[in-house]
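Sequence dictates fold. Below is an illustrative record:

_____
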Amino acid sequence: MALTATIEVNPSTVLINQQASATLTVSNSGGGAIDLLSVTPTAVFTGTAVPAQASVGLGSVPLSSGFVTSVPAGGDLVLSFSCVFFSPSTGIDGTGSGTYDIGAVILAADGSIFSPSADTVTVDPLPLPSSEL
């Protein structure tokens, strides 16, 4: 396969409702350009210190509708999307972080479907005011 990808999310630790940015780099080691047909961001809730429901908003990857988005031969294409995490919410004592693995599923015109290794983001709850602890 000529295409590979990596993903990095910054910052790697956020508070609930804080936006993070994911940078997806698609690399082409082949001798010809390859068009991308779709890029779908993914988020998998991978754990929490206390039971919590998972909720995350993922932005869309800006592939131009009606235009060709290609990864050049021997080159890279850098795309980005935003992530906002709505859980875990503050636990009973103001503690309880969770983690998400952020990735993407990429479909290319050469028939390949692939994903980068996910990047992990830690989401901390909003702290309770000391008067409520």
About this structure: The chain has a mean pLDDT of 86. The radius of gyration is 18 Å.
